[in-house]
Each structure stands twice: as C-alpha cells, then as structure tokens.
C-alpha cells in the first residue's frame, strides 16, 4: 500500500488534532481522506475547513461502505469506540482507537475477538508508550536490572480540571456519556503504563473511589487503589483531578534496586548485591545493602500521538510491530473497572474481574443518574494535553 | 529543683545511649543516679562501667522506693512501658518514656489516667518532633498557609532491617515480646508526626499488613494503610523493613498548595489564589491555579533524644512546656493498632477503635505464636538510628 487512506470518526477535540497532523503531512505514508461526524450542525464548517479533497460524512454506514478509507481513527466518546471498531473490522478497515478502547471490558472483549478474527491492524492511542523514560523503565524491568518487583507506587494527581472543563461538554463526566471520570478519561495512559512497564496485572485489588468529591459531577474524581500481585508485590495508585499543584511520581522498588520517575526524570538506584543475598550474608544490626545512584542514558524523544499514528501506518504498510496493540487496551481498562467495582462493592476485587457484575453496576449508575447537562459541545483547546 | 536525678529503667540499646548522654553531662540540670536492669547477668558489667556514684538495681520495687531518683526514663521492651510508668507515678516520679508508650491503647489509656491524676511531668521520646523540618510543616498547617488538607501521603520504606537484626534479641519481632513489627518498633515516630503535624486523626481506616513477608518473623514487616478524615481528606501510609534503598517521602496537599519532605528537605508550592477560588472563577478548559515554588527558611537543628530529655528536665525544673507530652503517645499507637486491626478483620476500622477487639486479637496472636527465639540479648550498636 503506497498511502494509507485514513478516515477520522468524531471531529471533537482529539479528532481535530489528529486531522491536523494528517493534513500537515506529518504522518509518512498516510493521508486523511474522509471524516465522519454525527453532529449535523458541524458538517458545513467541517467541509469548508477540510476542503473538497476530504469527504465529510454524517452517516456511519455510508462512511464505512464508501471505499474512500483503508483505516479509521476512532475519536468519538468512549462508549462508541468498541462498537465502531467492530463495524470497521467488518468493513475490512484497519483501526486506530483513541483511549480508552471502551468503557467496560465485556464490550472490549468482543472488540478484541473481532480484531483477532479480522487479521487487520488494530492499535490504541497509548501515546505515552512513546515516552523514552517509560520505555527505559520497562527495559530495566524486562531485563531484570531491577530484579523482582516488590512495590509499585504511582501518585498521579497532576490531572487538574476545573468545573468549567466538566461543564464544557454534555457527555463529559457522566455515567451515560463517559462511564467514569478520572479513571476513564485522564488516567488510561498511566493505567496502561502501569501494567505495560511492569508486565504484571494484579491478583486482587481494594480501591477507594470518590464520586463528585471535588467537582459537581457524578463520576469519580479522586481514587486510591491498592493492589496485590502474584509474586507478592503490592502497589498503590492515587489520582485526582482536584489538586493543585499535582504530582506525577512513580516509584518501583525491586530486589535489585529502585526506580523513581518524577517530572519525567528517571532515577535508578542499583544495589551492589541483590537484597536477598545481602540479607542472607549480613550478620550485623542495622546495616543495609550498598546502593549506587546511577545516571542512565534515556535516549530518543517522545513522539506522542503522531508517533502512535505513524507506527500504526507503518504496521499496515510494512508490517512494523505495533507499539500499542489494540488488544492490550483491555488491560488498563480492567484496572479502571476494578477500581470502581471495588468501591461499589466496598470489598476486594479478584482478577479476572466479574465483568457482568461491573456491567450491572454501570447500568444502575446510568439509570439512576440525575445529572442533566446542557449539551454545549464546546471544542476545547487541547494543546499540551494528553 | 537544682538537679533532676534520673534513673534509667532498662539498660539495653536505647537505655545505654541515654545513660551516656547523662554521664557526659549533655543534659543541663540532670544527672544519672541509678539504673534498673532485670537481666542479672548484666549487673556486674553495668556497675563496673557506671562507677560507684550510680546505683544499679535489679529489683523494681527497691529501685522505685530507693529515693535516689526524681524521674525515670523507661527504655525497656514496649509491653512494660505503661505498667512501669503507672508504678513510677505512684512513687511520685516524673516519667520520660521511650516510644512506643505501650503496645495496645487500653493499657496506655490507664497510663494516661495515672499521669493526669499524678500531676507529674510525663513525656514520650518522640525525638523526631525536634526536627525543624517537621516543625515547619506543622507550622505551615497550623497557620493555614497550606489551607485545608486534602491528601497526606507518606512513603516511609527506609527502615531496612536484615534477618540478623531480628535474630539479635529474643523479644524482637514477636507478638509476646513487642506486640508488632515495623509499626510498633520503627514507625512510632512517623505515626506520631503524621497526626502531630496535621492535627488530624482519621475517622476510618483500611489497612493491609503483611506478617513475616520479607523476614522470618511473625509480626508485620510491610504495611499499606488508607485513611479518611472528617474534612474529606484521605491519606496513605506505606512502610516496610524489607526494601533497599528505602524512601522517606511525605507529601501533604492542601487547598492552598503542597508540601513535600524528602531526604529531610522541605519544598513548598504555594497557590497564588486558593484552589476553590480559582475553580469558581476559571472559565477555560485545561487551566490550573498559578503555583509558586517557594524556598522557606527552616531554622534550628534537630536535637533528637537529647533535646527531648532536656525538654523533659526543663519542664520539671522550670515548667517549660513539653514538646512531646506523654499523653499524646496514644495517638500514634492508635494508628498502629488500627492498621493491624483492619488487617485482622479484613475490613474498615472506624475511630475510636474497638480497643477490646484489638486486645482480643493480640492475645490470640500471642497464644498461637509458634515463634521461639533464642534469647540472645545482643546489645547492638545503634549509633545513627532513631
């Protein structure tokens, strides 16, 4: 394939950003050929801005059947991600899906099955996987430089959002519109990186979500989650959209040392001998293993959204391995679902989670929602966001 | 009183340190006049080392009735702290008690009542309250510079202890000997500072203790605790004796900024306008309050054990207010008891905690203990410990 013809589904905040990259020819081997936008009031403006070379569709079926795209980039509200992806696969279209891949894992499992049987290229916009710092952390863990993981601690409270943010879109921060708050909208990156870097999913979790604690919203805006892993490690994940200035500090402790990432800077402490070995040989009272604070090269630049889109296009054109395979989207989402479920049940959640129970709770939340918002659909300036 | 005559009860690791300070005349207005040591095999050495001016007692009653001391410094294993303090008050002796003030709050409550009715001076060896950094944090909170507290996060995993440490004393890390592990032995300082700096005790807690996870011991050596406060704030406290290199990082977030203490260095971020005010006025999408990273003077030096002892002596001699009143020892201990209790019940613990239930659990642990240790009584070199 000489050029991958891409159609964007959903021309809101993120769809607009992706369209610009394609129109500016920032993605090699790809071009924007169509967009699908269901909000009829936006169609005229879109056609005018995009020009005659880009087809603007309001009808989903017409778009999918048009033959004018080889691949779709899905940037709609979250609930539609999985069903749209499934439809796209049926129409033999490759899929790059914005995060989160869906709202509940039941739905995403179906999408993954459709992707698998289609043999098409399926990727998810986990753009923070392109960050060399997190790639280095993953490297240190995968090559056993850190040793057996003992503790993971991520304080990610730098997702500050004022009430005006929540008021800017009718679907935002509602059970029916997003199916969650900070976990489903802001944190999918960290929830994915958490499992991607460590290669571990919990065996069980106890989480404490607070709904509308800092803002007039019905979904969670403050979360603390505690996890246990099969190897005995534990983890804590803390997030909030109500704190300023927030913190983004990840610490992973292993039996050969410790990694801290704060302000996008990686620090690695390496034990001269692994801790279990020190413990076995040491005969004194208060001693501890000799520790070396190491400066490691962190090479490369974070290519972000464009990097993921380029990788997706390269996978289609050249068979390049995907950095963020779509099928992996379910892992971070499972963590997110588990955090809400543990809170609703006020109890431990064991993995694999009870997907039906989660779905049942979510439907109850939607049914009992009293949050009515005016459907502003303000397109925000999202420069500098993730 | 010209000079306070002090008797030390328990000449183990800490008792020996305190004796040295007194003998070296490092505490103004106080002198060591007697010691009580129940381990008969140590008496001869003690008398030889201390010289003829210091009376060495093996019998508790004889020591308390001797008339040779005005005040006692209790440095025995924890279980005996409260009962010894109660006896000392009965003999009209002032009491400076090593941390923790006791093992279970029921016992400590009785001690506090005895102290109160005695009108004698009662202090606890919370030497980290003399650290100007923590004093500054307390100051920033008490004067509302930080605003309403929203989150407290303390990662205190720098209490590394090898197996040899636990093997060095028969009472160490057993239910019968210490009544706990990292919470009762290493963490009393942080548990105290946690409530002392913030002025807040939780309304409820959910904690996850692991017993003998890293070492061959029966008590907890790894803990994660989650707390809720009346004002809506939450907290996380994480500790371990099995990690290297450990971390000691405290973060307190308020609605006017954020404090971080790491490596004994305080950093304060101040919001130009309080967060609720920003949130009310802001009309944009992704903005957050203007934040100033401030450099604050932190004055004074950490006087440590000697500082607390000096303050205790000054309180007796001159009525100087106590920096660490003994009655406050119960607060940190309550946090510690609550963490174990929540784990044992595998449920939330609400405050005030069920002291009888805690006591019942503890007795069961003691009864069912299979941990038999050889009673080494090795005196460790504790220079540089806390």
TrEMBL record, chains A, B:
Signal peptide: none annotated. Residues 134-259 form the GFO/IDH/MocA-like oxidoreductase domain. InterPro entries: Gfo/Idh/MocA-like_OxRdtase_N, Gfo/Idh/MocA_Oxidoreductase, GFO_IDH_MocA-like_dom, NAD(P)-bd_dom_sf. Residues 4-125 form the Gfo/Idh/MocA-like oxidoreductase N-terminal domain. GO terms for molecular function: nucleotide binding. This is Oxidoreductase.
